Automatic annotation (TrEMBL):
Heterodimer of an alpha and a beta chain. Residues 29-319 form the Dehydrogenase E1 component domain. This is Pyruvate dehydrogenase E1 component subunit alpha. Its cofactor is thiamine diphosphate. The keyword GTP-binding does not apply. GO terms for biological process: branched-chain amino acid catabolic process. One of its GO terms (molecular function) is pyruvate dehydrogenase (acetyl-transferring) activity. The pyruvate dehydrogenase complex catalyzes the overall conversion of pyruvate to acetyl-CoA and CO(2). It contains multiple copies of three enzymatic components: pyruvate dehydrogenase (E1), dihydrolipoamide acetyltransferase (E2) and lipoamide dehydrogenase (E3). CDD domains: TPP_E1_PDC_ADC_BCADC. Its EC number is 1.2.4.1. It catalyses: N(6)-[(R)-lipoyl]-L-lysyl-[protein] + pyruvate + H(+) = N(6)-[(R)-S(8)-acetyldihydrolipoyl]-L-lysyl-[protein] + CO2. The gene is pdhA.
């Protein structure tokens, strides 16, 4: 397992320490703190019945944000349902993330200039899409990569093998991240496959596979940066397996983690917490204080509140919106239905 910082926030792999400025290091911490507040807020809004679908992210901040930080704006992100923080930090307005949660069509209307696809719900489908996006980037001679995320469960899907194999064969500039958060809903990762690691599945596709400490933001950043350089050099895709944990339930739709996880296992992983570890590292370099952290928390709360208000103020979606946004050119029977609904809605 590739690691840069241990649980105590000490550098254990000096050669691999990424070349990040103090400002970058603080920015990474800021984003992780902000995202944890976002997660707490989203979970609580969901409990109040004010959000629809939400998949908690606490415990996965380093895996999500360390990898996104290694990208440039011109790179493409093809996310799964849990990967909302990465696309928010890539530029998706927060209020649209809340609308996505509510199943509002505007949450899926990614701004034109943003290289992001809407979060994929079908497990593994994004891997095939990413192979295609990456091959497209290569054919067009673009100097950018496509990154995608799935889970330990997603790594068992046929699409996972197809996409990785295809991208490997065509040396497409793709990065496949499997966030191994130890469970696919209630199925433990150990029961998912007879393979010792998910990273080793790269061997069959003829591409490098790296198992990374997904609770170590510097390790995730460094591994993603290397994968990106390889992709840009024409050396093809990389598979990254980030070992992490989701502290919360699978989604807010009602699964109860206490039925399939022990509190001992929760404790074991919470000791590896990405924020605690990185905070210790930054404090040892005199780069972080309680005051700075509180500032980030206050700012996050304020911005999140404003984003929720903006989501609340967005006009409710109508059936006619659904029809209109589904097709570029409407088939005749939907044209009739659109008229019908517009008529009904105008009353
Ligand atoms: C093709 C398909 N099969 C089944 C499901 C139902 N489903 C939703 S999430 C999930 C488990 C995914 O686990 P994992 O890939 O480990 O990702 P995690 O949720 O842990 O991030 C399943 C089986 C689905 N969405 N799509
Ligand atoms: Mg999982």
């Amino acid at each position: 397992m590739f690691q840069v910082l241990n649980e105590e926030g000490e550098v254990v792999n000096k050669e691999a320490l990424p070349d990040l400025s103090d400002e970058d290091l603080k920015e990474l911490m800021k984003r992780m703190v902000y995202t944890r507040i976002f997660d707490q807020r989203a979970v609580s809004l969901n409990r109040q019945g004010r959000l629809g679908f939400y998949a908690p992210v606490a415990g996965q901040e380093a895996s999500m944000l360390g990898s996104q930080y290694a990208l440039e704006q011109k790179d493409w992100i093809i996310p799964g349902y849990r990967d909302v923080p990465q696309i928010v930090w890539h530029g998706l307005p927060l209020y649209q993330a809340f609308l996505f949660s509510r199943g509002h069509f505007h949450g899926g209307q990614i701004p034109e200039e943003l290289n992001v696809l809407s979060p994929q719900i079908i497990i593994g489908a994004q891997i095939v899409q990413t192979a295609g996006v990456a091959l497209g980037l290569k054919k067009k001679g673009k100097d950018s990569v496509a990154i995608t995320y799935t889970g330990d469960g997603g790594a068992s899907q046929g699409d996972f093998y197809e996409g990785m194999n295809f991208a490997g064969s065509f040396k497409a500039p793709a990065i496949f991240v499997v966030q191994n958060n130890q469970f696919a809903i209630s199925v433990p990762a150990g029961e998912q496959t007879a393979a010792k690691t998910i990273a080793q599945k790269a061997v069959a596709a003829g591409i490098p596979g790296v198992q990374v400490d997904g609770m170590d933001v510097l390790a995730v950043y460094a591994a993603t940066q290397e994968a990106r350089s390889r992709a840009l050099n024409g050396e093809g895709p990389t598979l990254l397996e980030t070992l992490c944990y989701r502290y919360g339930p699978h989604t807010m739709a009602g699964d109860d983690p206490t039925r399939y996880r022990t509190s001992d296992l929760d404790d074991e992983w919470e000791k590896r917490d990405p924020l605690v570890r990185f905070r210790k590292y930054l404090e040892s370099k005199d780069l972080w204080s309680e005051e700075q952290e509180n500032e980030v928390v206050d700012k996050a709360k304020e911005e999140i509140k404003a984003a929720i208000k903006e989501a609340d103020d967005t006009p409710k979606q109508k059936v006619s919106d659904l029809i209109e946004n589904m097709h570029e050119v409407l088939p005749p029977h939907l044209k009739d239905q659109l008229e019908e609904y517009r008529e009904k809605e105008s009353k």
